[in-house]
Inverse folding.
């Protein structure tokens, strides 16, 4: 199911009518990957890029993923990615993991993150997803924590990411 089939006409009811939201495609890869590289909150490891190129492309192509982009003035302004294929969760409750949500700095404070989030939730519900979870980088400026709290997420435990190349 393509996003435009799920939320046809959605552009007309958005807070910012100049923003369009669509499903990410492999053609968007370079712009989206550069956005990830330029977003310090995405860098999980202290000794590497935020994600391997192949891993990021697989997220765009993931049949169990909801990967959306927001465009303003024909430019990609932000992205959201939720993985619907969480095999570690019980099948009775359908879970999705909110993996990425970022708006490029020049497009922030325009309601675009909320529009991406709303579109993502709408699509997840069409897949019968009933629960969503995610992580927020506690070393960031706090905006993602505030955004998630505003949208009903509650704080869980704090973890320290540790990694090692082997």
């Amino acid at each position: 199911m393509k996003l435009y089939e799920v939320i046809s006409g959605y552009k007309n009811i958005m807070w910012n009518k100049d923003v369009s939201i669509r499903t990410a495609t492999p053609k968007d890869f370079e712009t989206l990957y550069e956005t990830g590289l330029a977003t310090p909150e995405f860098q999980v490891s202290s000794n590497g890029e935020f994600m391997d190129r192949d891993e990021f492309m697989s997220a765009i192509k993931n049949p169990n993923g909801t990967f959306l982009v927001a465009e303003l003035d024909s430019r990609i302004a932000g992205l959201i990615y939720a993985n619907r294929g969480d095999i570690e969760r019980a099948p009775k409750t359908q879970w999705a993991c909110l993996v990425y949500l970022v708006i490029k700095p020049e497009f922030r404070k325009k309601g675009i993150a909320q529009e991406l989030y709303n579109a993502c939730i709408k699509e997840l519900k069409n897949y019968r997803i009933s629960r969503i979870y995610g992580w927020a980088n506690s070393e960031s400026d706090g905006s993602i924590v505030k955004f998630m709290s505003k949208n009903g997420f509650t704080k869980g435990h704090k973890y320290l990411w540790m990694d090692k190349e082997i």
